[in-house]
Amino acid sequence: MEKLRRNLKLYPWYVGLFHAYFWLPVYFLFFNSKLELSEVLYLASIYFASVVVIEVPSGWFSDQFGRRKTLITASVFLCVSYTLFLFANSFEAFAVAQVFLAGGIAFNSGTDTSLLLETTQALDEQESYPELEAKAMKFNFLGTAAAGILGGLAAIPDYRGAYALSLLGGVALLCLTLRFTEPMREQAAHRLGFFRQVLSCVGLLRNVRLLWLSVFAVFMIVINHIPYEFYQPYLKELAAQYQTLKITPFLTSVHLTLTMIAASFVASKSIRIRNKVGTGFTLLSAAGLQIAMMAIMHFFVNVPAAIATLLRSCPRALMTAPLNAAVAPSVPTEKRATFLSLQSLFGRLGFSVTLAAFGAAANGNDWESITNMLGLGMWLGLAGLAALLLTIFALRK
Hints:
By secondary structure, the chain is mainly alpha-helical.
């Protein structure tokens, strides 16, 4: 029991350290300093396509062989990725590093929250799971916030400095992950093969409530990433219009850090908000806020708009704990990571296709191409939000 309680103590720190993306404030600038805009977008597409390939096998691996082994694998992949980024100078080298980064993200996806839920179940404290998930999300954003400012400072002499810090963080993450204890789980009567496991998870979508929540999760993965991909060139365009501003790694890192601090506050309150207004209203509010972020970036390039975009991670902060609390307990233990991985797979596949289309439509490095992409994302978001609103009755099933 004491070792299981250690999981609960370590878990928020694991989440914070996993999301300590020191490279996040400068990755677009770093890639763009070596490659054309279209190649940068193709790199992002490669990353998401790689996650698509790895996502569900990683969930199946987690369900079959355990949460701890899967999270250790994720940490190792991140270390390899950051090492490759340190020495990359060509599109091909960056692409290989992106594949390993995708592997790290995929092997963590769904397994982290499964470890937390199953630990609370093993301790007979399942009712504490939603609040613990909200606390972990707070650490998620605080980890990114701290890493953002440190990564920006490290990148001032050279963008690679941010990746050197990421590698150190990856090694620390691996050491922490090794201290996890595998929670005891009820074993299925027999293990399903990969394809039968996937089909059995798809069969769970006959539950219309679970179907609506899964469609929402996929939709939000797509629209959450659009402002994320373009906030750095947005700040670059802002600096071009205001001669007193100069785009630097420090400026982008400060902007990122403030964004994550705002998101950490929202994450810490997300379950309380859900308890007051309900799951459906909470989730749809998150979607509406993200669409508003895309609209602001599309229509306005000025200082007030840049300040407003500090809220761009708040939708994810608001939705994640309530969504996980609604989905994870509804899925059998032996299928949980696979099911959550399928959600991520279709979301990332959708965004990979979106990015590939954006890359094909890009015309050089000009802001006009990017603002057109933001506009398309806004209309995509509005259409999806309308469909979700019309089918919200499914949550009552």
